[in-house]
Write a structure and sequence with these properties.
Jelly Rolls; 4-stranded antiparallel beta sheet; 8 strands
């Protein structure tokens, strides 16, 4: 089973710099979780307990709002969710619900952080991968905010969202990593 887990981890962008022995070290702390269709892998507001990789099935990521639930993403095999919980102890910002019978690989935060604290090269490389993901998300979000603010390339502002709207968008985007 550890070989299967290492192979799955090796396909993740977060693990692309890991050597085979480093993949094996991370795979050694993983476990599979079986989720029945309609059941939740985790719920918005729960403590983040680690990263999940969909092995088989499909997970719908949903966010509560005053007008009901909104689907943020549908993740199938090799889909990764919850990577931020490897770094922070923040609560989940969305719910992961199985659309079909699903098997997911779980990389637990507690064990990962212990590896990180010990200076494990594998854990450090994964943390660097998470930083890359966040940098890309931030760059994308900066472009979206500029478009919403209607700032043209010369720096002139046209009628668009109010400053308060942009602040709220910025705050919201900071917590949407599940």
């Amino acid at each position: 089973m550890a070989t299967t887990h290492a192979a799955l981890l090796g396909r993740m962008a977060l693990c692309r710099r890991l050597t085979a022995p480093e993949l094996d070290a991370i795979a050694a702390i993983t476990a599979t979780r079986e989720i029945t269709a309609g059941s939740e892998l985790f719920r918005e507001g729960d403590a983040g307990d680690g990263l999940y990789v969909v092995m088989v099935g499909e997970i719908n990521v949903v966010k509560r709002a005053p007008d009901g639930e909104h689907s943020l993403a549908k993740l199938g095999p090799d889909g990764v969710l919850g990577e931020m919980s490897l770094i922070t102890s923040d609560a989940r910002s969305a719910t992961g619900r199985a659309l079909t019978a699903t098997t997911a690989l779980h990389l637990p935060a507690r064990e990962f952080r212990a590896l990180l604290d010990s200076g494990s090269p594998a854990a450090l490389k994964i943390a660097a991968g998470i930083a890359e993901v966040l940098a890309r998300r931030l760059a994308t979000m900066n472009g979206v905010v500029l478009g919403l603010a209607k700032v043209d390339p010369a720096g002139a502002t046209r009628p668009g969202l109010r400053t308060q709207d942009l602040r709220e968008l910025h705050r919201t985007m900071q917590v949407w990593s599940i």
